[in-house]
Task: inverse folding
């Protein structure tokens, strides 16, 4: 099979992390090795420490415990892509506010790589339509890419705190008062929307729905204005606008209408969680964070400590993160398509891990982590 990219060697910084992380990362590496063989490229994986594993290793080495060693960040910056599994677990849960915590590794690497937008593909696999709480017919053909701004808006805007603001209590008495401000610069909006247009251009339907609250918010008016300015440079993309409250309703009423959705930080946070329920399963969701330099790819789920070491974790979100990486960071859309098609075929053939099995699944079709990856690899080789 031909690759659309001339390069032959890519360096992937792999971060297995904690819990089921190392188990699902091992399967991702086997799939990457298969992709390498089929497409004639070398995906060179180099493991680095993050999360609880990094805290333990640095503590054992007698240095200050950290969830993100400097060499991990350096390796991530130097790589063509970062593939993360998951971090965290009860072992590192503590009431000591000064202790290093696994999630500091995640926040640190996102900041260190300057990641400013998040991608959340929401693809409803035909065979898993029954897993969602929505009616099967509503889920027909759902394939959405949510593009969310990650570093601006309400979560990072100016804050004010007053414990006794005059008039904030009852009958004009002083009372507690809080303000979280939402701010966006043209630059912050433009770089996200440019990426959203580019992504829409690569998709079959080429539709971009820009979601805002431009009837009320100044930041949304700016968002909408920039979306329409950029539309002129992307004539093949059909741009529509939608208010966020309507979008929240449309996502459950008629989700198949959406192709690419682009929105600001807070709206994206809420809409991407809502949309993930369309798939009905956490073990199937990949995500990516992109910025100026190296991009990071990871499953949307956590480290699942309750099933760690049992060999039953669903590796498919991790494998779909590999596909997202092939498409968004390595310029290998054919290989990405092949991974997604292989996952679809394996599910259509009735194979399941325990988290996506239901009462109709024959016991012999319920596979462990490695056996599920074997099925995907078999399909890739067909
Ligand atoms: P979780 O996503 O780890 O697990 C929630 C439930 O889903 C569990 O029952 C788990 O067994 C199941 N599950 C998750 N992934 C699965 C998979 N691939 N296959 C089969 N079942 C799967 O969320 P949680 O339990 O809230 O958090 C556990 C730990 O993960 C915590 O320490 C949390 O901080 C951390 N966490 C990490 C990330 C990340 O690394 N990005 C994200 C969320 C939570």
Result:
């Amino acid at each position: 099979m031909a690759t659309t990219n001339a390069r032959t060697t890519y360096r992937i910084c792999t971060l297995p992390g904690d819990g089921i992380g190392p188990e699902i990362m091992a399967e991702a590496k086997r799939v990457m090795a298969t992709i390498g063989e089929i497409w004639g490229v070398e995906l060179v994986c180099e493991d680095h420490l993050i999360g609880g594993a990094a805290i333990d290793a640095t503590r054992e080495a007698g240095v200050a415990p950290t969830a993100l060693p400097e060499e991990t960040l350096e390796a991530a910056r130097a790589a063509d892509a970062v593939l993360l599994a998951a971090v965290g677990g009860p072992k590192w849960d503590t009431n000591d506010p000064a202790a290093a915590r696994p999630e500091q590794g995640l926040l640190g690497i996102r900041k260190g790589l300057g990641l400013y937008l998040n991608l959340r593909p929401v693809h409803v696999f035909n065979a898993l339509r029954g897993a969602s709480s929505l009616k099967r017919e509503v889920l027909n053909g759902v394939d959405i890419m949510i593009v969310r701004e990650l570093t601006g808006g309400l979560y990072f805007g100016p804050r004010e705190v007053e414990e006794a603001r005059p008039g904030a209590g009852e009958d004009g008495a002083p009372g507690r008062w809080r303000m979280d401000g939402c701010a966006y610069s043209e630059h912050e909006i433009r770089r996200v929307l440019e990426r959203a247009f580019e992504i829409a251009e690569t998709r079959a339907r080429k539709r971009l729905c820009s979601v805002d609250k431009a009837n009320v918010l100044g930041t949304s008016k700016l968002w909408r204005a920039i979306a329409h300015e950029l539309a002129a440079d992307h004539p093949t993309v059909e741009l529509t606008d939608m208010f966020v409250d309507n979008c929240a309703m449309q996502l459950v009423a008629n989700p198949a209408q959406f192709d690419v959705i682009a929105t600001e930080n807070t709206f994206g946070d809420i809409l991407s969680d809502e949309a993930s329920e369309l798939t009905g399963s956490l073990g199937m969701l990949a995500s990516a964070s992109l910025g100026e330099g190296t991009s990071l790819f990871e499953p949307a789920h956590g480290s699942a400590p309750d099933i760690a070491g049992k060999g039953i974790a669903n590796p498919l979100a991790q494998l779909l993160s590999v596909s997202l990486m092939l498409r968004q960071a390595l310029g290998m859309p054919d290989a990405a398509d092949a991974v997604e098609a292989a996952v679809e075929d394996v599910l259509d053939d009735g194979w399941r891990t325990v988290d996506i099995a239901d009462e109709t699944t024959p016991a012999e079709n319920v596979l462990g982590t490695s056996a599920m990856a074997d099925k995907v690899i078999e399909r890739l080789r067909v």
Q: What stands out?
A: The chain is about 40% helix and 20% strand. The first helix runs from residue 21 to 39. The longest strand covers residues 9-17.
